[in-house]
Amino acid sequence: MSIAIDLRGEKALVTGAGAGIGREIAIWLSEAGASVAVNDLVPERAESVVKEIIHNGGEAYAVPADCRDDTAVDELVKRSVVVMGGLSIAVNNVGMLPPNRGLKPFVEYSGDDWRDIIDQNLTLSALCGRAEAEVMSKSGGGVIIFVSSGETTRPSPYNSAYAASKAAINHLVTSMAVELGPTGIRVLGIAPGTTLTETVAAAFTEDRIQQLVASTPLRKMVEHDELARLVVFLASDLARCITGQFIMTDAGAFLSRTRPGNLEGIRTNDT
Known about the structure:
Blueprint: E1 11-15, H1 20-31, E2 35-38, H2 43-55, E3 60-62, H3 70-84, E4 89-92, H4 111-137, E5 142-147, H5 160-180, E6 185-192, H6 198-203, H7 206-215, H8 224-235, E7 246-249
Parallel strand pairs: 1-2, 1-4, 2-3, 4-5, 5-6, 6-7
């Protein structure tokens, strides 16, 4: 007996898919057969991913939108349903540490820092999940996957606001899973370990990257495609009884006792 993942006929929306992890997830979902709506704040980035998917024989649509806007999120999901003819898979990858809200001592976080970071991560994710769940609950169900963070599995000094905002997503996953399960919707969270995105590469010194690699049991950084592989599995019928779970893809980083501190090997304007 051979086992393969076939997502033909599925309709997937991936937010924050213009680059990095989101881009890879969109491409892998397409390779598995799903139609994909590619969202990004920057239209040109969404269009670039769509062109790549179509060039490789897939079906994709650019749906740029600013997910910080409640109305824009609702319109994004509606537009995705229109162009694809439905919605059965949603991957909420949008979220970040906003510019000028970087690492700092806890006592230096202002109210604006907290509000901005929580808005960029928890609120954006919740708004997307709400709009997606509304559609799926009326069409037989589906799966909603949130991208959380490995920072939620350990103390995160000097990064407390970001870690707290992502940890809240983990609890959102369990609450949504219980509430939406009877409608046929599965809800899951995935947590990447430190992934060498453009942002990470710009912020970390080479020494820090090597220290992070050495501190993981598998002695490696997480690659973009490793998150994408997990998403494809969780979106498939092979995972039909999995819901309310928070799954880490971090090369075992959460087990590490030698991980460098959050302020070690971080580039500043002077380095």
